[in-house]
Amino acid sequence: MTRLRAEGLTLGYDERPIVAGLDLTVLDGKVTAIVGANACGKSTLLRGLARLLTPREGAVYLDGASIAEMSTLDVAKVLGLLPQSPVAPDGITVADLVSRGRYPHQGWFRRWTERDHDAVSRALDATGTADLVDRPIRQLSGGQRQRVWVAMALAQETDLLLLDEPTTFLDIAHQVDLLRLLRKLNAASGKTVVVVLHDLNLACRFCDHIIAMADGSIVAEGPPTEVVTAELVEKVFGLTCVVVPDPVAGTPMVVPARD
Amino acid sequence: MTTAVLLRTTRRRRTARALLVTAALAGAVATLFVVTMMVGSFRLSAGEVIASVLHLRDEPSVDFVVRGLRLPTALSALTVGLALGASGTIFQQLLRNPLASPDFVGITSGASLAAVFGIVLLQAGGLVVSGLALGGALLAALLMYVLAWRDGVSGYRFILIGIGVAVFFEGMTGYVLTRAQLFEARQAMHWLTGSVGQASGSELRLLSIALAVLLPLAVLLQRQLRALELGDDAARALGTRTELSRAGLLAVAVTLVALAVAVAGPIIFVALVAGPIADRLLGPAGGGVLPAALAGAALLLTADLVAVHLMPTPLPTGVVTGAVGAPYLLWLLATTNRQGAGG
Per UniProt, what is the membrane topology (chain A) (predicted)? Predict the structure, then answer.
C-alpha cells in the first residue's frame, strides 16, 4: 500500500485548472522527482499533495484518508513540506528557526520537551548545520541557508517530505550537495522524498523515480533509465536533444542537439 | 562539543535573557508607575504613594492627591501603554513589516474620524466620544479586512489598503473639522493629540478588563504568530490554520488598540516603537508580546512624566511621543531602504 496518492485531482487558483484530473501514487521509501517545463503545474501539484490547496475535484489520500478532511495538524505530523520561498524573520538564528519545525508536536501549553530537543539536535547533525546554531540566517550562504530550511523540515519528524525546487538559486556544487543530503536522509531513515527539480540530469542521477509533467498532467513516470528519452524531452520541454548514459553513474544524461 | 549540548546552551541563554529582559521591563514599569504619582506641585514619597494605592494607611490629604488625582492618569498611561505595545508588535509580526503599526494602517484614523464626528456634529463628550472611537476603530479594521480579502489576507495588500483607508479617513476628519464651531474644534483638536489625562473611570475599567483577558490570550497566540512569520505555505505545512490564526490575532490586536484609542485618544508612535525596542533587548527575532507590552507601558509612563512635569507648561502626551517617535520613523525608513529589506 502506498501512503500518499492522488485520484482525479484537479487543482487551480482562479477559473482555469492548472492540474486536471491527475492520478498519482507516491512510492514509499523512494526519492521521487517531479520535472517539467516552467508553469506546467509541478509546484501546484506539490502544494495540492501537501494540503496547501483544496482540490476542485478528486482528492489526495494520506494513509487512506482524504487529507482535505484531516486536520492541518494531523497532516503536519506525517507529511512535511519545504515551500519554494519560505520567509526567515529578521535576524532569526539557526537554532530558533530549526526549533520552529517542532510546531506540530507542541500544544497550547506543552512547551519544549526532551523529544523536541533530540529531534532538533538530530536534524542539525543530519544536515551538517550544527556548528551554525548561533548564527543569524541572513549571514549564511545560499547553500547553508537551504540546509537550515531542510533541517527545519526534518525537525518536524515526518515520514514523508516534499520539497519545492530546493535547488533553485544554488550553484552546481550546492545543488549536488543538497541532493546528496536528500539521498542520505532517504537511505538512513527510509523517508519518502518528493522533490520538484528543474535540472533533469540531476533528477536522473539522484532520484529513484521520475514524474514528467506537461500542461497539468503526467506525461510519463518510472525509473529514470526507462522514462528519460530524447522523445520525452522533446515532448515535455520542447528541446531536441540526445540522451546518453552519464559517464559516472550510467543514468540518462540530456545533451542538447546541434542547431 | 556535541550538537545536543550546544543546542541546550543556546536555548538556555535565550530563555535566561528573555526572563531577565521581561523582569527588568516589569521593574522599570513599576518604578515609573510609582514615580509619576510622586511628582507634581504636591510632592510625595514613594512610601506614601504605595501605602495610599494599596490602602495600607488612611491619610485624607495624601489619598485625595494619589487616589483622586494621580492614580487615574497613571493607570491610564499604564494600561494604554500595555495595550498599544502588545497590539503594535502583533501587527508588525503578522504583516511582516516594521512600519505596519496600527497608527499607519488606518485603525487609529478610523477612531479619530468617529470621535471628531461625535464632538463636532453631535456635541458629544466623555463616554459617547470614547464609544464612537471604539466603534470607528473596529469598523475601520473590518473594512480593511474585507477589502484586503482575496482567498486570504496577505500582508502587503493589507498594509497598502490600510494606508489608503488612513488617508481617506484623515481627509474626512479634516472636512468635519472645517464645519466646527471654535469651541468644538478646540475640543476635537485636543482629543486628536491624545492624552492619558483625559480618561474617565468607566473607560479605564473596560480597558483593564480587556487587558486582563486579551494579554494572556495574545501570549498564547504567540505560538501561531511564530509559525505565520515563516510565510503562509510554511506555516500551513507546520500545521497552522493560517486564516483562523490570523483572524484571531488581528481581532486581539484591533480590540486592544481600539480600546486604547477610546481611552486616551490617538497617542502616536508608541505602538510603532514598543515592539522594536523589546526586540532589541531580547535579541534577534525575539518577538515577545509581553516584553513589547511592557516596553509600551514604560514608554508611555515616561512620555507622561516628561509631558506633564519636565515641560514648562503641561502638554498632551501625544506631543511628546510624536516628538520622540518621528525621528525614529525617519531612521527606520532610512535604514530599511539601505538594507533593501522593505518587504
Answer: Peripheral membrane protein
